[in-house]
Amino acid sequence: MEDKYKLIPDVSPADTNWTAKVIVVEKSLGRTAQYSPTKYQNITLMDPEKNKVQATIYNTNIQAFEDQLVSSKTYLISNTAVKPTKQQYRSWMGDVQWTISGRTKVEEIQEDHTVLLSSTYDFIFFDRLEKYMDSKVDISIIGVALDIKPKRLIQTWFGTQSYIQDVVLINERFQIVLLTMWENFVNNECIFISNNLTRKLIVIGTHLKVSSFNGLSISTKTNSSFLFDPAFHQAMQLRYWVEQNVDKLDDMVLKKEYLARTPAKLSTPTRDKLTQINNIPGLLAVVITDVKENKILYSSSFSGTLFY
Q1: Looking at the domain that runs over 121-260, which CATH code has it been given?
Q2: What residues does the Replication protein A 70 kDa DNA-binding subunit B/D first OB fold domain cover (predicted)?
Q3: Where are the domains of the chain?
Q4: Same CATH topology for 2-117 and 121-260?
Q5: For residues 228 and 197, is the Cβ–Cβ distance under 8 A?
Q6: CB burial of residue 254 (10 Å; 0-12, 13-18, 19+)
Q7: Angle CA(60)–CA(225)–CA(227) in degrees, nearest 5?
Q8: pLDDT of 170-214, one tens digit each?
Q9: Does domain 2-117 match CATH 3.40.640.10?
């Protein structure tokens, strides 16, 4: 019976009349392209052998599939457009990408793959984030959305302006970390989190980077993705912890106790990672703040630790 379903790597752009069995790993909120009015939604699909593919839904089809292709559920899917991925995106999107349209056939089947899904994540503990700071390594995290700060407009050292917003995450050890959302994530995920703060959402974030900006924080990348309250074992354990500590968490938000815990403290770097000031002329960071317009203007091309 399984033989009639193709595995994701076996589907090529030239293939027709194929059907694949897939589990929805991640389904982002719909968003608008940066330089056009096109709306799109990214979905990560996985077959029973853990092969993954990036699928995209555009414009009116987003609403048409709103109640289908739900995270963690299993489907039979056919008639998707398959095309090679542009070279610059292959490192994180794979060799091919699927486009889901009005011609695509989707049928839900009752199979539970939550254990398989859970095994695909390698979450980094909050107290081990420093190891990945300012590296090119993507990380995944799981935490509780404790609070969210107001969005603000910044001017990057590239000379462009961007909206960012910080989400305060907490784990079962009462450790705090800031998750900085950029641009589209501010207009989508941050609004969703803000509207559901009282639920204390369990947040799973993937393809994130650890930054040294403002001490230590986690930041989104273009290909970052989020899950909220998934039916995973780790998420259910964290939900139980929230229920047992809800009064304490509410009190932390009321008193803003987390402000004293963020940003995360950094350990003293080793001598070989220190840089003498006279070795970096002209590369010091410049920070300018415009309080009246609630803007932070900054320019930075140096990342390191200075000593005299």
Answers
A1: 2.40.50.140
A2: 5-104
A3: 2-117, 121-260, 271-307
A4: yes
A5: no
A6: exposed
A7: 90
A8: 999 999 999 999 988 998 899 999 999 999 999 999 999 998 876
A9: no
pTM of the model: 0.73
d(CA 165, CA 141): 18
At 127, list the tokens: 């107290």
Length of the chain: 308
* Six token digits for residue 298: 């900054």
Write out the E strands in the chain: 19-27, 31-32, 39-46, 52-58, 74-78, 81-84, 96-100, 105-109, 139-148, 152-155, 161-170, 176-182, 202-211, 217-219, 225-228, 274-276, 286-290, 295-299, 305-307
pLDDT tens digits for 214-272? 678 899 998 888 989 988 889 999 999 999 999 999 999 999 887 766 555 555 555 55
Angstrom distance (rounded) from CA 90 to CA 182: 22
